[in-house]
Design goal:
Blueprint lengths: L2 E4 L5 H11 L4 H11 L5 E7 L2 E10 L1 E3 L6 E9 L8 H16 L3 E5 L2 H5 L4 E2 L6 E2 L7 E5 L11 E3 L2 H7 L14
Parallel strand pairs: 5-6, 8-10
Antiparallel strand pairs: 1-2, 2-3, 3-5, 4-10, 6-9, 7-9
Length: about 180
Amino acid sequence: MELIRPVREGDAPAVRQVLEHAFPTRAEADLVERLRANGTAVIELVALDGDSIVGHILFSPVALEPLAGTVGLGLGPVAVMPDHEKHGVGRRLIQNGVAASHKWGAGFVVVIGDPAYYGRFGFEPADKYHLRNELGAAGSFMVFKLDSGALPPPGTLVKYAPEFADAAKPRGRRKKDTGKNR
């Protein structure tokens, strides 16, 4: 069983390797580096198999328009080395990350991903609560309520950190997040 722990100084090269193996382009690895460099990565966990990093998850604050009396985090990216997929590594990263988000003080977590995959963890379609996102991810935009009454009001635009907008710009063909890299 893999150990889940916070990222430590010196983990960056191994985390980048995980991201580059889990995704077809370097976009997610570059995104993580930009989030770190800008101080936007507030929760970052890794999964270890022995001394090797085999999984990674990151959470960053989201902005709300209009402002609301709650704080939320965006989950993503999450990645697992291909040879460790389907062993529960992604599940443990998500569960530990959601718990760390609650401890951090977030009232909710959002993610853009496969509804069937993230639904297993308690994420619900954000449109059920009339929440919108600026990235155009309608059916794959999901929310996890950490505290009762902590969701923003219906109609609120939930905006990921600015670094995500840079990552969403076309750079050639990219694989859709299906939750299969977990």
